[in-house]
Design goal:
By secondary structure, the chain is α/β, with parallel strands linked by helices. The protein has helices at 3-7, 21-34, 71-83, 95-99, 103-116, 134-146, 166-176, 191-200, 210-214; strands at residues 10-14, 38-41, 57-62, 88-92, 122-126, 151-153, 181-185, 204-207. The chain has a single domain, classed as Aldolase class I (TIM Barrel), CATH 3.20.20.70. Helices cover 40% and strands 17% of the residues. Residues 218-224 have low confidence and may be disordered. One of its GO terms (cellular component) is cytoplasm. The active site is at 90 (proton donor/acceptor), 153 (schiff-base intermediate with acetaldehyde), 183 (proton donor/acceptor).
Length: 224
């Protein structure tokens, strides 16, 4: 897979609490240079200035990173983000609801954010797959689909259980049956890892170093 194609899978991500406006500007510069699909930032960093002529989108996290926010708060955060220029919302579910297989609660949580940020805003739902059993991964993915999400996403990248795995991506892709996108995020640091996630069914990648991956020539990319 060539670099322009791979870059279009990527949300170039900067969610560190200490991220500055200068850091965001550097993120945008890399995104424009390499042609990533979007930049993904914290809501307090909005608005993000994208140079004229670039098609790079702006994604913003909601209920991040714990998901332990009232649905109404997540919905309001999403609404404010869209009003300040966000094209996409990456929301975190209440992970305990997935652990306990309370999938109706997940559906209601996602539906509240969907109502506050309707199409054409893209809604991605972070399920924190590394903290879940297989039933939790599948059930949470299906609940997100029922609530009108556009993507299910593996991870925040902040959970101690870990980030994306090939196993989780495959389960999620099977669960949504091609009706939603699947975003693999968390721990994807090499070109080989990125390609492995795509082969497993990921249609978007959350990466903290797009430049590092796209300039990684050490991996064998034959067959992609």
């Amino acid at each position: 897979m060539d670099n322009p194609t791979l870059a279009k899978y990527m949300d170039a991500t900067l969610l560190k609490p200490e991220a500055t406006s200068a850091d965001v500007a550097a993120l945008v510069a890399d995104a424009v240079e390499f042609g990533t699909y979007s930049v993904c930032v914290s809501p307090s960093m909005l608005p993000v200035e994208i140079p004229a002529g670039s098609d790079v989108k702006v994604a913003v996290v909601t209920g991040f990173p714990s998901g332990k926010h009232l649905s109404q708060v997540k919905a309001l955060e999403a609404e404010f983000a869209v009003a300040r220029g966000a094209h996409e919302i990456d929301m975190v579910i209440d992970v305990a609801a997935a652990v306990e297989h309370r999938f109706d609660d997940i559906e209601a949580d996602v539906a509240a954010v969907r109502a506050a940020a309707p199409a054409p805003t893209v809604l991605k739902v972070i399920i924190e797959s590394a903290a879940l059993d297989d039933e939790g991964i599948v059930g949470a993915s299906k609940a997100a689909a029922r609530a009108g999400a556009d993507f299910v996403k593996t991870s925040t990248g902040f959970h101690p259980a870990g980030g994306a795995s090939v196993h989780a991506v495959r389960l999620m892709a099977d669960a949504v049956e091609g009706k939603l996108g699947v975003k693999a995020s968390g721990g994807i640091r090499t070109r080989a890892a990125a390609l492995e996630m795509i082969e497993a069914g990921a249609t978007r990648l959350g990466v903290s170093s797009a430049r590092g991956i796209l300039e990684d020539e050490g991996a064998d990319t034959s067959g992609y």
